[in-house]
Design goal:
heterodimer; A: mainly alpha; Cytochrome C Oxidase, Chain A; 2 domains; 16 helices; globular; B: mainly alpha; 5 helices; elongated
Amino acid sequence: MKYESQGVAKLYFIAAIGLFVGQILFGVIMGVQYISGDFLFPEIPFNVARMVHTNLLIVWLLFGFMGSAYYLVPEESERELFSPFLAKLMFWVFLVAGALTILGYLLVPYATLAEITMNDLLPTMGREFLEQPTITKIGIVIVALSFLFNIGMTILTGRKTVITLVLLTGLAGLAVFFLFSFYNPDNLILDKYFWWFVVHLWVEGVWELIMASLLAYVLIKVTGVDREVIEKWLYIIIAMALISGLVGTGHHFFWIGTPDYWQWLGSIFSALEPIPFFMMTLFAFNVVNKRRRDHPNKAAVLWALGTAVMAFLGAGVWGFLHTLAPVNYYTHGTQITAAHGHMAFYGAYVMVVLTMISYSMPIMRGHKASNERAQVFEMWSFWLMTVSMVFITLFLTGAGILQVYLQRYSEAPLGFMVTQDKLAIFYIMREVAGLVFLAGLIVYILSFFVKGKEVEVI
Amino acid sequence: MEGGFFYRQKNLMRSTNKIPLQRASNAALASLLNLTLLPVLGFAYLIFTFKKTDPDGIDRYHTILGIKINIIAATVLLVVSGLMIFFGGFDSPWTWVYVISYFTIVHTVFIVFAIWALVRAWSGEKLRSSFTKT
């Protein structure tokens, strides 16, 4: 580790992994509830389990992004972090606020939580993924601004690289677009616009910048390919991500009462959205093929390549599958969306955070790479989680296609719940795949504790 | 080990000149385009390029690889999907469950393979040269 303050990242990564475990446990619980609706009712109703599953995902990815930035920025900027104390303080603030919010979801009815947290003063609760009480949202803004200040000051007073500038743009966008969550218009259609300005512009906009910069950083480190080559790729990728992603928001506006032109805009621009992910695969393959050295951290290289491929598959291909308006007319809000969501989040964001952890954690523990046995464990976890996620996606896709046919395409359409009963076989198989994913995650955690022959010590 | 890449590139430049390298890259790109944006046209390009390539050169290798990939892809994607529809019936929802899931995942596998072939062509290498840098 070149700079002592990079060590702050360790805290963030440990919290991220802990919350990741929580997210998967609630995913597995929900998987059972899809098969047997009464499972754990009334202690953990489906809607609460779903809220915890998705909120934990967002929170742990944010921890992962922040940890990654705290590790990456000092090294790129060639100076210590502006304020390690602020980074540690904000870590605890975010962790406590996040834990209290999750406990709130689990321990009291959602309406009571809204009442306790005085949601009526500035109502922001009740929207998917943005269910956090207003006071938590304010906390997130404070944490995000402090984080941006810390990272921004480090970057602006140190060496500026394309990677840090792209990262900073992505992180600033993340903070700015979250502000739309405070605007909660009465008109439901207007509300959806602003809701998507947070959700879409995060995951199909600025998060792609964060992802691309993290991936570029790790690839520079593990391949030794010239920074200039990687930076040129980075420029093209982020340009394509923004060109396609910003207007591509329109694909969420089909069939919800918005003007018809969104069908054209949304279809055309979101059909371009696979391009940046395609280019990321090309980019990652190219630099690994041209690598100047074999880095001892083979697991990190595997995660990096896996990120590029799975992001293309999940965000690119599975997104394109249902993004054109005439197709989306049938598929809107079905299990096909869930299939896309699972693989896209895993491929693009979960894997890039795990790539950063894989690369940096051994260094923060005093080694260039984990010992050989630990890397074998880690690579097993990679394959278990990745292959099971492919199967989760395939089973949900199958469920979605059948759902579309029975519920929306057939000449004698069935009702929603009747259709759900007919999808049971897919939900059972999805749950089995989910359990394999959980097993992969356990192997991943074990990899941090496995002893073996150490590789080169720094 | 540091420097291995440059040594390999130097040898590569001695053994290949720019034209076959360019043809190899174009062939790999045509293969990828045939699988994505320009089906049939990409394949036609591969067929027409074939005669221009050096029998022992990297350009011939990538042209043949592209032709093989696309013939296998066409068989595996179109023929198998066609058989699924033929035996499953056009009006059965289960036919479409299998066809769409199968087509999407297998098609993507071919695209990812073609991307790897393209980056190998860019560096003037065959698919199977040593994966370990020395």
